[in-house]
Amino acid sequence: MPDTEAEPTELSAWARISHQRGGVHDATSAASGLTSNFSTYVVALRGADLRQGDIITADAGAIRKWKVGVVDELAVEGEPYAIQAPLARADG
Question: What is the pLDDT of residue 33?
Answer without folding.
Answer: 57
